Amino acid sequence: xxxxxxxxxxxxxxxxxxxxxxxxxxxxxxxxxxxxxxxxxxxxxxxxxxxxxxxxxxxxxxxxxxxxxxxxxxxxxxxxxxxxxxxxxxxxxxxxxxxxxxxxxxxxxxxxxxxxxxxxxxxxxxxxxxxxxxxxxxxxxxxxxxxxxxxxxxxxxxxxxxxxxxxxxxxxxxxxxxxxxxxxxxxxxxxxxxxxxxxxxxxxxxxxxxxxxxxxxxxxxxxxxxxxxxxxxxxxxxxxxxxxxxxxxxxxxxxxxxxxxxxxxxxxxxxxxxxxxxxxxxxxxxxxxxxxxxxxxxxxxxxxxxxxxxxxxxxxxxxxxxxxxxxxx
Length: 329
Hints:
The protein contains 11 helices and 12 strands. It is of the alpha/beta class. The protein has a 7-stranded mixed β-sheet, sandwiched between helices. It has a 5-stranded mixed β-sheet with strand order 6-7-10-8-9, covered by helices on one side. The two termini are 32 Å apart.
């Protein structure tokens, strides 16, 4: 198995990207890795070349670059070269922590969509209180969506949950403003009817406040709503831990208490860290394209690689292709 990685994407590139790859190379001995980026910058952090290759690139797509224009004009960018390697069959999957819009554009224009998939979906696995997590899609690949798109999201999420997360008959829910069938806008009402007839374990609507309670294994929504929810979860978690830290350090008594429960607090923080589940996969493309978080450290990069490895190993893309073909008759 060959995995292509954009070594220049993300806030801590290439240092944390390289460290994450080296960690993965030790654990996934039947995988080979190609790092795309400035060879000199990468080499200063690379301690082992075992199954790790560097392809020198002269350009980088930055966070402020306009996604589509950057992909079309920066042909020598690390992200573009990485995606091209997948399209040419030189790699089985690719990963980047760089510009999200540019990675989606690279996926669409270079890797290409699966025939029959109308809109690819960005799908991370988010944490739950019980530690099992759930797949949510779409979280920003498409601002607008039709009921038929959300139906495809449900099938793709179900396939991923079954084959990679190893959940038997995963529960599929529709994000809505209420649990009743008649709640929501035109999109959610029509999607509800489609999901009710579909060959998925549809459990009905789910409200945003219930997402982290573990009531569903797959949650579908449009990209605008999904991205808002994701940012709300991220912001709430960060603010909560910031408030907790401030409270725990404001007096000697609190500092002593914090010292006693420090291990438990760190465990709680890890439990709510969704990067432990990997990156956000762009489902519906001809090959796996994974978006790691922009602030990814080596551990987050490692888990994104583990995710890519599992997706390729379990042929998730092939299963999605077969399912879409079946649904289209």
